[in-house]
Amino acid sequence: MRYAFTLFPMLSLASQAWAQTTERPNIVYIMADDHTAQMMSCYGNSPVETPNLDRIAAGGVLFSQSFVANSLSGPSRACMLTGKHSHKNGFTNNEHGVFDGSQQTMPKLLKEAGYQTALIGKWHLVSKPTGFDYYEILPGQGDYYNPDFIHMDGSVTTEQGYCTDIITRKSIEWLERRDKGKPFILFVHHKACHRDWLPPMKYLREYEDVTFPLPTNFHDTWEGRLAAQQQEMSIASSHDMDLAYDNKVYLPGDKSRLSDLYAHYISRLSPEDSVTYHEFYDSLSTAYKRQPLTGDALAEWKFQRYMRDYAKVTRSLDDNVGQLLDYLEQQGLMDNTLVVYTSDQGFYMGEHGWFDKRFMYEESLSTPLVMHLPEGYERRGVVTQMVQNIDYAPTFLEMAGAPVPDDMQGISMVPLLREAGAGKKVKWRKAVYYHYYEYPAEHSVKRHYGIRTERWKLIHFYNDIDEWELFDLKNDPSEMHNLYGLPRYSKVSRALHKQLRELQRQYDDPIEETLKNGEE
After folding, report:
1. Residue 63 phi, psi (nearest 5)
2. What is the DSSP pairing of strand 337-343 with strand 369-372?
3. Which of 145, 80, 112 shows the shortest CA–CA distance to 10?
4. With contact defined as beta carbons under 8 Å apart, do 356 and 331 qualify?
5. Listed residue (26, 79, 106, 132) closest to 404, CA to CA
6. C-alpha–C-alpha distance, residues 12 and 364, integer Å
7. Cα–Cα distance list, 116 to 46, 113, 463, 464 (Å)
């Protein structure tokens, strides 16, 4: 916090001059929840098409190695806002976290630099948003159907319609009434594609004729990976993926907590939509009850239901991104606007037999990231350097012409975006650092930290467990074989341990010393 008394006065003076020009690019930051690169067609091998998300990548850049610092919704958002790892911004987990809104954040710095700042949609950081000229946010996770929104004066209104549509409409309404003489940053934060994947009525029957391919490791038994054996995010498990809550199968007499929570979600439907909804899912429930499944057959059936509902929610999300892009084009804003699309983290679409996120394995460590670049930034195509969500804040600040505080831990991506081919010449990080804290908690993923390089990944699970895992991402991209402790990989392990300690010193995370002293 060393800039508390020196940076803001300087920015206040500078913003008087900066506010007179609109040459600095506008920024539209679109963030989905739990959307994953495996379900985005521009990343290849997606079982669904996302033409509007692909529009962003086709005319701009796609990051092939985009990662998060902590694969969980609230902590990921805090990393994005502050440009710092979780242990530095203070929001390490959803269970007990409350974001300290008094700290330095990227929206505050942009506001000081003369930008208009607005946030529409999911916040999920418990405390009141700060640094925004305007916001309308969902309470907690929010609802898909007829959702509530919290306004800046603290009032709450219920909006009629589907959440993804409403967030887009409200975002465009703010763009219409903003001060056209000043640059802006607009955060469009969608609830989609969060559990439990409730689709809009218009797509209720979409993808029902699609059989989604099983991931090759869907029936993973997690041999040699003790922490993976102890998780609770298995599609096959009736405890982890509930038939009523997740698969919309209404079993007679089911009064479980999950069923009650699910009943709350769908109780928000209008009477007309409720009839439509229940006609569809009742028919599926009836068919299931006629011939209930067990074992692998049940797990694979649940996977298909999960994928179909997730795909329906994703299609609506893609439609809405297209609507926002159309508006920006119609208003002549695209030439001077950075449009970013990403998610708060990745997600498992059946890989390892799972749904959800949290682990440092590739599917949840990775997050999609595509950008439409404003004039003056000529890079196009695939960016292969390893970037992380702590990099967003310094990137936006540099593009806005605002100083980047020294205590931000991310790296501005501007050098990667300046010129065609320039990224190949940029000196860049060789590894990313990750730290997950939320245990004990839902899904029972153990606390862990680790390092990922271009080829290798080293993970340490700790707290009530002490297990190390090593993966060769070149020869084992699905992370099925833990190589840690094998003699022929001892040299690789020693080198990664050294790099890991260097990153922990760089980011000032004392976890290994804490564990060594028995303080955890």
Report:
1. -90, 115
2. antiparallel
3. 112
4. no
5. 106
6. 39
7. 36, 9, 43, 46
Q: Tokens standing for 109?
A: 């710095």
H or E element: which one contains 29? strand 26-32
Residue for token digits 């007309």? 272
Name the pLDDT band for 520 (thresholds 50, 70, 90).
confident
Maximum distance among all alpha carbons in the chain?
A: 72
- Closest to 455 in 3D by CA, of 519, 394, 499: 499
Residue 170, SS3 per DSSP: helix
By CB atoms closer than 10 A (0-12, 13-18, 19+), residue 350 is buried
Reduced to 3 states, what is the DSSP secondary structure of residue 317? helix
Q: Is 457 helix (H, G, I), strand (E, B) or coil?
A: strand
Query: Is 425 or 90 the better-scoring residue by pLDDT?
Result: 90
Contact 327, 186 (CB under 8 A): no
- Per DSSP, helices labelled H in 267-423 are 271-290, 295-330, 362-365, 392-399, 414-417
Residues 63 and 50: their CA atoms lie apart, in Å, by: 16
Find the Cα–Cα–Cα–Cα dihedral 233, 348, 96, 444, rounded to 10°.
30
The CA distance from 365 to 408, in Å, is 21
Question: How many angstroms separate the Cα of 305 from the Cα of each of 47, 162, 198, 404?
Answer: 14, 21, 12, 46
Percent of the chain whose predicted confidence (pLDDT) is above 70: 93
Residues 427-468: pLDDT tens digits? 999 999 999 999 999 999 999 999 999 999 999 999 999 999
Count the residues in the chain: 520
269: left (phi over 0), alpha (psi -120 to 50) or beta: beta
Question: Do residues 74 and 97 lie in contact, with contact meaning Cβ atoms separated by under 8 Å?
Answer: yes
Q: How many CA atoms lie within 13 A of 360 on its CB side?
A: 28
Pairing of strands 148-151, 156-158: antiparallel
Nearest Cα residue to 260 out of 242, 237, 239: 242
Residue 23's alpha-carbon distances to 19, 106, 184, 394, in angstroms, are: 10, 20, 11, 19
SS3 label, residue 149: strand
Q: How many helices (H) and strands (E) does the chain have?
A: 15, 16
